[in-house]
Write a structure and sequence with these properties.
This protein has 109 residues and is mainly alpha-helical. It has a single domain, classed as Arc Repressor Mutant, subunit A (Orthogonal Bundle), CATH 1.10.10.10. It is 59% helix and 8% strand. The protein contains five helices and two strands. Strands 1-2 form a two-stranded antiparallel sheet. Strand 1 and strand 2 form a beta hairpin. Helix 1 crosses helix 5, helix 2 crosses helix 4 and helix 3 crosses helix 4. The longest helix has 15 residues.
Length: 109
């Protein structure tokens, strides 16, 4: 009798999302998580500059730090923005932000 070939199982979409959320919970900084949750709550078609300024002013986080956080989140594919287009969560970023928000992540920075 021969050895049966190993059958590779493709992960289900829900499993991929669960793993991605778990990774983001562990690897994103508190400030990055905070910014994702704020974007989820304030989806009002605002620009990158206006959102950055408003968040900096309301939280005391330096503007340069807010912009650096947004840039890193964009590089990870969690937020999208460009000149003339409103800042918004990507579809994956929205899933991550909703998971963070629903699991009681605190808004402390």
């Amino acid at each position: 009798m021969g050895v049966s070939p190993t059958v590779k199982r493709r992960p289900a979409y829900s499993e991929i999302i669960r793993v991605l959320v778990s990774i983001c919970k562990r690897r994103l900084t508190q400030k990055q998580k905070f910014v994702l949750r704020m974007l989820l709550r304030e989806q009002d078609n605002t620009s990158y500059s206006k959102f950055s300024a408003r968040l900096s002013e309301s939280t005391g986080i330096p503007l340069s730090t807010v912009k650096r956080i947004l840039k890193s989140l964009r590089e990870c594919g969690l937020v999208e923005y460009e000149r003339g287009v409103p800042l918004r969560l990507s579809s994956v970023g929205e899933l991550i932000a909703e998971a963070l928000d629903s699991e009681g992540e605190k808004d402390e920075i």
